[in-house]
Amino acid sequence: MKHKSHFTLAFLGLALVAILGGCLRDECDTTRTYIRFDPIYKTPSEIRVGISAQAPRDLRNPGKIYLLGQYLFVNERNEGIHVIDNSNPASPQKLAFWSIPGNVDIAIKGQYLYADQYVDLLAIDISDMQNPQLICRSEDAFHLHGFDPQRGYVVDYLQTQITEEITCQDAQWGRPWFNRADVIFMDVAFADASGNSSNSLAAAGIGGSYARFGLFNQYLYTIDNFMLRTWSVDGSCPSRIDSTHVGWNIETIFPWKDRLFIGSQTGVFIFNNSNPQRPVLEARFDHATGCDPVVCDDENAYVTIHAGTTCNGIFNQLDVLDITNLPAVSLRKTYPMTEPKGLAVTNEHLYLCDDGLKIFDKTNPLDLKLKSHLKNIKTYDVISLGAGQLLVIGEGGFYQFDASDPSNPRQISHIPVIK
Q: pLDDT by residue (tens digit) across 163-206?
């Protein structure tokens, strides 16, 4: 089979860490438990199925969040978007569900929503929230896990746990991962202990720290596993201008003034965006291997690194980077964390999804002060709207908090996950 999965390549770093760490055993015969990753294929005709507006439905497997004026958009992983009227944060109202199979990320500018559908980029007119219209499709805009001419695109992996007896004669003995054809096996010891991830349409919206789409003026920036692409969105249909190879395992993008901060599993890439048509790599900071969203203010970038199967790492920490003298970038301080994920910053505070939700006073980034810690929710990402209003997404659903008193944040509302 000619197809070689990018997902397989992503595990190489983890394998080396484990081998160099000396994971040796005295015995040869043993029982091993693995997580099996079976590729899920879809043909081009199965991928390009269009979109539809449906009645509101419950959150089941929420992903990323996006805000535009009074409207909140919550991704249902690989299925579509929940549209919510948030004009009254104490009582958000579900308006519709937009079915977009294969969708993970969105960005909105004016009346147009830009969304991924597996490997394609869609432009959707949302001037009528109850009747979104697909305007155009840019095919093969993203590289996911690979392509096989007979079976199509690898769009995801199905995970199952298996246990088997092995001996030292077995080829996989002592290895943290191995593959048989296009199926990948990962030792469960390295598995993710977490269980896993204005009132008008006149402006661009706000995404969370896990966003893979970013907007700046008339330009849309998208990333996939290894590419940064620049699109003109001056009209209704995106037009690709530039493509730049960044590196493997690219994860997040955070536009900040005239720069783009891109997080990967091995470091942070900073692109100078003074010419927004063609961003140029200006600086890079390498860090411990792990999943890596990044946000920043004028002086510091804040990077979370967490462990897990798909993150290829074993570290859980918050790094504070000095970006006051770019292209020079340096580590100011590392804070140990439990399993940090999404984050947001304001002038005075850092909001961090780690073992719940943590709020820090960041007046002195070298001495972060924990103001409060909500432990009763499992969180994934957070958006700060200023004046202490927080939007939080997690395994239990969508939450809103009033954190105007950071020592005593108050839950405003909750849309639960219904299994």
A: 777 666 565 555 666 666 666 666 655 444 333 333 333 346 78
Give Dmax (Cα) for the chain: 67
Rounded to 5 degrees, what are φ and ψ at 399? -125, 150
Q: Could you tell me which residues are beta bridge partners of residue 194?
A: none
Give the torsion sign (CA, 304, 73, 237, 49): positive
DSSP string, 341-376: --EEE-SSEEEEESSSEEEEE-SSGGG-EEEEEE-S
Cα gap 380→362, rounded to integer Å: 21
- Do residues 94 and 82 touch, judged by C-beta distance below 8 A? yes
- What span, in angstroms and rounded, lies between the C-alpha atoms of 276 and 259? 9
CA distances from 399 to 169, 412, 418 (A): 52, 8, 14
Of the candidates 184, 147, 182, 125, the residue with the CA atom closest to the CA atom of residue 47: 147
pLDDT, one tens digit per residue, over 155-164 is 777 777 777 7
**Domain residues of the chain, as ranges?**
6-41+144-190, 49-138
Alpha-carbon gap, residue 368 to 406, rounded angstroms: 13
pLDDT reported for residue 183? 66
Residues in the chain: 419
Does the domain at 49-138 match CATH 2.40.10.480? Answer given as yes
What are residue 112's DSSP bridge partners? Answer: 109, 125
d(CA 350, CA 340): 12
**Which burial class, exposed, middle or buried, applies to 124 when counting CB atoms under 10 A from its CB (0-12, 13-18, 19+)?**
buried
Distances (CA, A) of 355 to 194, 294, 375: 10, 18, 6
Structure-derived torsion over alpha carbons of residues 320, 324, 325, 328, reported in degrees to the nearest 10? 10
Tell me the C-alpha to C-alpha distance, in Å, between residue 121 and each of 96, 248, 306: 21, 21, 29
Closest CA to 278 of 329, 216, 323: 216
Q: 3-class SS at 17? A: helix
Sign of the alpha-carbon torsion through 245, 219, 208, 260? positive
